[in-house]
């Protein structure tokens, strides 16, 4: 259940960063999460597409790394996208 909240917070943070930087289509995302997290790249991508299928889609690649962070911590390391 906690991972569901973290996934939504990741989505909100990505959207905020895209708005700040004028990104209208996300091609690649690199994210680090705590090593106890059950979040998988495919599950995260499915959530992102469900929430906004104009900025995320089959063209989007998600790279996940698991690090010894505090529980329910995620760090967005990189967002590559296009601006229009």
Short description:
This protein is of the alpha+beta class.
Describe the 3D structure.
- The structure is a single chain.
- This protein has two helices and three strands.
- By secondary structure, it is an alpha+beta fold.
Percent of residues in β-strands: 25-35%
Rg (CA only): 12 Å
Q: How many beta-strand elements?
A: 3
Taking strands numbered 1, 2, ... along the chain, how are they ordered across the largest sheet?
Answer: 2-1-3
Measure the end-to-end span.
36 Å
The general outline is globular
Q: Which structural class matches the secondary elements?
A: alpha+beta
Write down the overall mean pLDDT. 95
Helix content: 25-40%
Helix and strand element order: HEHEE
Which characteristics define this entry?
2 helices; 84 residues; 3 strands; 3-stranded mixed β-sheet; alpha+beta
Helices and strands in order:
Elements: H1 2-21, E1 23-34, H2 41-51, E2 61-67, E3 74-83
Parallel strand pairs: 1-2
Antiparallel strand pairs: 1-3
């Amino acid at each position: 259940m906690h991972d569901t909240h973290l996934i939504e917070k990741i989505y909100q943070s990505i959207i905020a960063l895209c708005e700040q930087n004028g990104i209208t289509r996300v091609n690649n995302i690199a994210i680090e999460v705590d090593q106890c997290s059950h979040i998988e790249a495919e599950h995260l991508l499915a959530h992102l597409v469900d929430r906004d299928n104009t900025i995320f889609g089959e063209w989007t690649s998600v790279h996940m790394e698991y690090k010894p962070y505090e529980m329910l911590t995620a760090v967005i390391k990189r967002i590559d996208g296009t601006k229009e």
